[in-house]
Amino acid sequence: MSWQRVLKSMGTDEITEILMCPDRKAGLLIGKGGQNVANLRKETGTNIDIPKTEGDSKEPRKVTISGPAAAVHSAKQRIQQILDEDAAAGGKDGQKGKKGGKDGKGKGRRRSRSRSRDRDRRSPAKD
After folding, report:
1. Could you please report the per-residue DSSP string of 42-98?
2. What pLDDT, in 10s, does the model give residues 32-73?
3. 12 with 20: CB under 8 angstroms?
C-alpha cells in the first residue's frame, strides 16, 4: 500500500491523502454495513471515501481521506492499525479464515458420513 499526499489548502490546514488499498483489504476498512468506516469518520473527524468496485475488478481501491491535517494523520494511523492487526491475526487476503478450520482452508473437524451412519446404526431405537 502506498500513501500519496494531495495538498488542498486554501488558507486552511485542510489536506487530502490518498491510499491505494488492495481490493481484498478494502472490506476490512469498510466493515459490515459500512460500520468500520463510519466509526473512523466519527472518531477522527475526517471525510473518508472508499469507492465501490465495478464488476469483478481486482484493481487497488483509492481510499481518500480529507480534513484537518491532525485528523487525517490520526485516520491514517487507525487505518494502518486495522490492516496490521489483520496481518498479525493471520488474516489471509482480508478473509480471516472464513472457510473454517484451524488453517482457514476449510479442513477443520469433519467426520466422514460413513462414520456418523455407523454410529446411528449402533444406537438402540427408542420408542
Report:
1. HHHT-EEE-PPP-TT--SPEEEEEEEEHHHHHHHHHHHHHHHHHHHHTT-STT--ST
2. 999 999 999 999 999 999 988 777 778 888 899 999 999 999
3. no
The residue length of the chain stands at 127
CA distance linking residue 66 with residue 73, whole number of Å: 10
Half-sphere exposure of 57 (CA within 13 A, CB side): 12
Q: Which pTM was predicted?
A: 0.60
CA distance 38 to 1: 21
Q: Three-state DSSP class for 36? A: helix
In this prediction, residue 82 carries a pLDDT of: 86
CA gap 82, 28 in Å, rounded = 7
